[in-house]
Each structure stands twice: as C-alpha cells, then as structure tokens.
Design brief:
Blueprint: E1 2-9, E2 13-15, H1 25-35, E3 39-43, H2 44-49, E4 57-60, E5 72-75, H3 78-87, E6 92-94, H4 98-104, E7 110-116, E8 124-125, E9 136-147, E10 152-162
Parallel strand pairs: 1-6, 1-7, 3-4, 3-6, 4-5
Antiparallel strand pairs: 2-8, 7-10, 9-10
This protein binds NADP nicotinamide-adenine-dinucleotide phosphate.
C-alpha cells in the first residue's frame, strides 16, 4: 500500500530554510512512529534535510551523480521510486517535499496529514492541486501541543484521509531505460 505523510500550516506552508517552519517535537515523533519500518520515497531536498534516513529510502532526483548514504537509492521519477519502494515488500510512504507530493498523491491510498492550526512563515508550500476533499476521513484527532518557536501551544489536527480508488501506477514501458 502507498501512503503519503506530511504536515501543513493554516497558511499552506510545509517548509522553511530547508527544515520545518515550526518546532513541534510530538508531531515529529508521530511522523517517525508512523513511517517506522516502511520504504520511503523522498525528494532530494527533503532527503538532504534529514539527519537519519532509514534503509530502503528512494531519493527522487534528476542528478545522476548524486552521492547517497547507505541503504538509499536514487530514482529519476516519483513513479520509479514508488515501484522500487513497493518491490521491497514493505509498506510505502511518500514523505515529500512539495513536487513529490504533487506527483504521488493520486497513487496513494492514504494521506496522513497533520493540519497545524496556526500560520507560519515558510518558503515551501503544500501543492494547491492536491485535492483531498473527495477522500474519506478515516481518523481525526486534535491535540494541543507545545510549539517551541513561538513558545506557545498549537492545535494539531491529525487526519488520515483515504482515497477509495487510487490511480494505478503506469505500466512500465520495457523499451525505456529503468529509473
Ligand atoms: N511539512 C512537511 O510535512 C514536510 C515534508 C517534506 C519536506 N518538508 C520541507 O520541505 C522542504 C523541502 O521540500 P521541497 O518541496 O523544497 O523539495 P523536495 O521535493 O524535497 O526536493 C526537490 C527536489 O527533488 C527532486 N524532484 C522532485 N520532484 C521530482 C520529479 N518529479 N522528478 C525528478 N526529480 C524530482 C529534484 O531534485 P534534483 O534537483 O536533485 O533533480 C528537486 O530539486 C524542506 O524545508 C523540508 O523540511 C516538509
């Protein structure tokens, strides 16, 4: 199964200066717990922002000279990343960033999205074309959590959306080069 996971502020931001716009350790812990043991599909900038990258991570990049940490493999498209991640036999999570979510969301059965109910400055935005309005809300939990940049509490709405009929991955053209 393919899922995506991310967190977005009230004004649509997901990133700032190569990291998250906020500092909410419990939200980060939720992310780590949810993707534990999964194969990950990760945009190159998000990969570079991570201190620890688990094995079976597939890094989407067009740079064929990209040097990666052990257990990581470059793929040149999101679809190639999803295929390779599925081939591990693990559950698959797309963890962003923006253009990776935008290319992957139609293939996902679930989207774990935390809505941070406050505006934050940011330079990376959740893609507007991702429309979850027709998806079922499978679960929804609101927690008031400490946020250490603004030194206040913030409401975090942990949503799990489910898409009934995700788009199948395109059939691989055997005449084209592998990704
Ligand atoms: N709030 C959240 O849940 C969340 C989640 C993830 C990331 N973030 C934040 O978002 C920021 C990074 O995200 P971002 O959107 O700027 O960058 P990103 O998606 O992580 O990385 C962009 C790079 O990925 C590669 N790429 C993306 N789509 C591709 C495609 N379809 N085909 C081939 N290559 C593709 C390209 O790499 P090359 O240039 O190497 O070709 C592109 O420059 C950071 O601030 C990070 O902390 C937040």
């Amino acid at each position: 199964m393919i899922s995506a996971i991310g967190a977005v502020s009230a004004n649509g931001m997901i990133g700032l200066d190569g990291w998250l716009p906020w500092d909410i350790p419990e939200e980060l812990a939720y992310f780590e717990q949810t993707v534990d043991g999964a194969a990950l599909v990760i945009g190159r900038l998000t990969y570079e922002s991570m201190d620890v990258v688990p094995v079976d991570s597939f890094i989407v990049s067009r740079r064929d000279d990209l040097q990666l940490r052990p257990g990581c493999r470059r793929v040149d498209s999101v679809e190639a990343g999803l295929r390779a991640a599925l081939a591990t036999g693990k559950s698959v999570f797309v963890i962003g960033g923006a253009s990776v979510y935008a290319a992957a969301w139609r293939y996902c059965e679930r989207f774990y999205l935390t809505r941070i109910e406050r505006s934050f400055d940011g330079d990376s935005r959740f893609p507007e074309e991702i429309d979850l309005s027709g998806w079922l809300i499978e679960s929804e939990t609101v927690r008031q959590l400490p946020e250490y940049k603004t030194r206040g509490d913030v409401n975090c709405r942990f949503l799990v959306y489910r898409q009934r009929n995700p788009l199948p991955l395109p059939v691989l053209d055997c005449n084209s080069a592998p990704g």
